[in-house]
């Protein structure tokens, strides 16, 4: 999954403080590149820092997005998205 690449990058860029407990992962589904880009714009508007990973092997197409750890009210930014399950 491309999310592994995105997660590695957000860690490299210092978005995840070292003094917090191990954060949980929640995967949400985007049906297209356009939807992924819209999500990035929404998160920006909500003040949620994120990293949009683009795959160099396929013409730098955006393929995954990862955010900083979110808490409290910031979590509301994700209420509209479908979470992936074991069956997806």
Structural commentary:
This protein is of the alpha+beta class and 88 residues long. The chain has one domain (3-16, 23-78). The protein contains 2 helices and 2 strands. A two-stranded antiparallel ribbon has the order 1-2. The model has no long low-confidence stretch (mean pLDDT 82).
Keywords:
two-stranded antiparallel sheet, alpha+beta, 2 helices, 88 residues, 2 strands
Contiguous helical run count = 2
| Structural class by sheet pairing and helices | alpha+beta
Report helical residue fraction: 25-40%
- Write out the strand line-up for the largest beta sheet, numbering strands in chain order: 1-2
Name the assembly state.
single chain
- Computed over alpha carbons, the radius of gyration is 13 Å
Termini Cα gap: 13 Å
How are the secondary structure elements laid out?
Layout: H1 3-12, H2 33-46, E1 50-55, E2 61-67
What's a concise summary of this model?
With 88 residues, the chain is of the alpha+beta class. It contains 2 helices and 2 strands, in the order ααββ.
């Amino acid at each position: 999954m491309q999310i592994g690449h995105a997660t590695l990058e957000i860690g490299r860029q210092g978005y995840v403080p070292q003094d917090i407990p191990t954060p949980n992962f929640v995967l949400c589904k985007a049906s297209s590149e356009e939807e992924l880009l819209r999500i990035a714009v929404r998160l920006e508007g909500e003040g949620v820092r994120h990293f949009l990973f683009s795959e160099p092997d396929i013409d730098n197409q955006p393929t995954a997005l990862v955010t900083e750890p979110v808490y409290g009210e910031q979590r509301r930014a994700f209420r509209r998205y479908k979470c992936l399950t074991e069956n997806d």
